[in-house]
Amino acid sequence: MVLNTSQKQKLRKFINDISKIRGRHTELVSVYIPAGFDINKVVQQLDQEQSTAANIKDKNTRTHVIESIDKMIRHLRLYKRTPEHGLAVFSGNVSDNPSKTQVEAYSLEPPEPIQIRLYRCDQTFVIEPLKEMLDIKEIYGLLVMDKREATLGILRGTRIDVLQHLTSFVPGKFKAGGQSSARFQRLREEAAKEFFVKIGNIVNTELLPLKTNIKGIIIGGPGMTKTEFYEADYINRELKDKVKAIEDITYTDETGLHHLIDKAQSTLAKEHIIEEKKIMEKFFQALAKEQNKTSYGYEKVKKALEMGAVSTLLISETLEENKILELEALAEQMSTEIKIISVDTKEGQQLRDLGKVAALLRYEI
Q: Whole-prediction pTM value?
């Protein structure tokens, strides 16, 4: 599963918030309940842990651990059953004042299933299983090429990373003086084959270690070169079987990778990068044709939200966290659709440069 930008932003905020909390001793309690596990059994385990905590020698630590477990038990009893993806629960003393105790409990129903069962007391909360969810596991391999140039990249969520850029020594189509046409053509074909071998070796070297995470590979370029490359045996069979589309595009440098994504929208239709590009394209089209049905800039959009005029709220992931929360709260009150937009696409970068906030309106204002 690949998290969308909104899910990543909310998960990242939760992790950042609880990672700031520090215990004076091993007194912060972390519990992970896997999907499908009986939450009542976890409560029973915590009852036993609370009894064991009575044997802790240090009085302050003993008090904080017992109170933290008690707070967590009461929090868990609010749930009739374990949520679909499991539950991560954290409890501990959050007071900065050594002479005061303020025990709080935090829980998260994660965006993807929890696989582990864990109970731990430590000076910090255990957040590694949540941080792993932010790692993008599924990727697409991207290759744009002709006989003169090739660029290999990968698509991770909404981000395109360039892995290798290659140039060849294949002669141009016009032969040098004194060379026969047949000999010149043979030299071009030999140089092209050497270049294809080089491309294939790079593709195998870079992508084979990632093969279990590769959801598909897309190849693009002008003319028949890309098809000739694919149909021959230049890349490993396991990678070749993952090729989902071969697209006609003009450019074979980094720009070509972005054009390849645009061209392969039908293949990538369910990927978040396409969702983001489409909603941003819809906004920019409306901005050009029906300017009064759009708004941008924090203050203007906030006012439109308060009026209930916003149908879709577009927020750049670069907007300050407190402003994101404020706009999201207003949007939820007005049943407004919310889209958190990354800056991994040119459309997302345009939103950032436009003021980080934009909106499609229900009616003209």
A: 0.70
| Whole-number Cα distances in Å, 105 to 22, 45, 48, 157, 212 | 14, 17, 19, 32, 38
Could you tell me if 319 and 264 are in contact, meaning their C-beta atoms sit under 8 angstroms apart? no
Say what the pLDDT of residue 358 is: 98
Q: Does domain 273-361 have CATH number 3.30.1330.30?
A: yes
What is the H or E stretch that residue 358 is in? strand 357-361
The tens digit of pLDDT for each residue in 284-327 reads 999 999 888 999 999 999 999 999 999 999 999 999 988 998 99
5-134 has which fold?
3.30.960
Domain 139-270 has CATH 3.40.50.1000: no
- One-letter amino acid for residue 327 of the chain: L
**Phi, psi of 275, rounded to the nearest 5 degrees:** -60, -45
Q: Contact 33/45 with Cβ under 8 angstroms? A: no
Q: Which amino acid appears at position 55 of this protein?
A: N
Read off the pLDDT band of 137 (50, 70, 90): confident
